[in-house]
Structures are given as structure tokens and as C-alpha cells.
Amino acid sequence: MGEWRYLDELDVTDLQALMLKNRGDELPLFVSYSTFANIVRVRYVSKWRAPMQKLLEDYERLVQGTTKRAIASVHANPPLQRHVQSIVDTLLKEVVILTQHVLDENLALETRPFTLNHYLYDVFMKLRTEPLLQSLDTLSGNNDNANVSMGAVKALLKSHCGIGKASNEEQQAKELHIAISAYMQVAKKRFTDAVPMLLEMRLLQPLVASLQIRLVGDDATDELLERVLFDSVIDVEAREALNAQRQSLIQSKAEIAALTGS
């Protein structure tokens, strides 16, 4: 039953090497903000661009597909459908470009770690004390009312704090690991909330508003509607010529049938 004596060891070799490389003459007693920010930017935030970009592209494809089906469902004449689709395509392209810029700015903000959310320190302390609390539960048999040896408790506290068994660099690397884990829990929630909100506010809502203006607002002039609602003279003449030829063929077929008695 001596397993309580051994806290799980966290492998921070990679972080420790990175800190030694970038710390310079900074005192190893404190977590380096510059190293912290660099790790957050390179190892985490840089990987957020791909899913963010995919979501934007998915929104664009979804809007394109939805509008095409909506336009086709009204069974308007082809010139009108082409006109409306052209407006949708133009406006969608414009709002996608603007939305891309806004999303890029939002992602750039995440490259500098910052928050006023008190949840950060709560998570930090929870992650820091969790191994100790788990070992204390093991020591007490998960019974908060159990009598345990104070010597055992002191031994756990010393082990948890790394007293006598960890170097300055190793302890600092562990603190950095916990700080990054705590911060990312705050930052990733903020970012995953922000992207869909920005897509709604900067892509969908402006697109709908612009379409209303272009299709049913002042931009939809009588002259424009007349041009797209009615076929051109050339189209009308061509269709009438084809109809005349068709009627002539039908009449000729009837006359031949009458002569042959078939």
C-alpha cells in the first residue's frame, strides 16, 4: 500500500530544453512570459488556422448551395435566375473577403496570451494540486474522515513540491507546463466561441442585408426588372421561328399521311 508515496512524474524534458535555450540570464525561479507566449503561438495557435479556414470555406459552400437551390425552387425564367445568382455570387465573394480579414485579426490577437478571466487561476491551481489530492485520497483510502500519519502527509507535500529531488529548471518547466495547460483551457473556449460568432455577424448577416437591398430595395429598379424578366427580342424571334418550323413540319406530315392514306 505504498503507492501513495509516489506521485506521477511529469515528463517536461522538452520544455526544459526549450527554456534553457531561450531563458538567457532570467532567474529560473519565475516562468518566462516570452517563452510562454512563444510556445502558445507556435505549438497551439498556429494550428488553429486550418480548422478556422475550413469552417469559413464550409460556410461559403453552404451559402452557395442553399441560394442555388432557393433560386431554382421558384421556377423563375432563366434570365432572372442568372441575374439573382450573379448578385449572390458577387456579394458572397465580397463578404467572404471581409470576413477572412476579421478572422485573421482575431487569430492574431491569440498569438499574445492575455485574459482577465479569473477561471485561469482556478484551473492553474486545480492542475497544480490534483496529483497531490489524488495521492492523499489513496493514502486515506478515499475516506476524508480517516486517520492518517502526519509524516506521510508531510512526505507527500515535499514530494509534490519537488523539495530535494528537482532542479530549478525542472521545477520551472513543470510550472510552465501547468500554466500553459490552464491558459489553453481558457483560450480555446474563447476562440471556438468567437469564430462562429464572427461568421454569423460578419458573413451571414451582412450578406442577407445586402441581398435585401439589391433584390427588393432601391437597387431593384423597374428598368432592371424589365430587362431580366422579359426575354430579349432576338430570343423571342428565334423561338417564334422555331415554332413556325415545327408547325410547318406537323402540317406537312399530316398532308403526306392524307395522300398515302396512312
UniProtKB/TrEMBL annotation:
GO molecular function: GTP binding; GTPase activity
Transmembrane segments: none
InterPro entries for this protein: Dynamin_stalk (IPR000375), GED_dom (IPR020850)
Gene3D superfamilies to which the protein is assigned, alphabetical: Dynamin, middle domain (1.20.120.1240)
Domain GED: 173-262
Protein name from the UniProt record: Dynamin
Species name: Achlya hypogyna
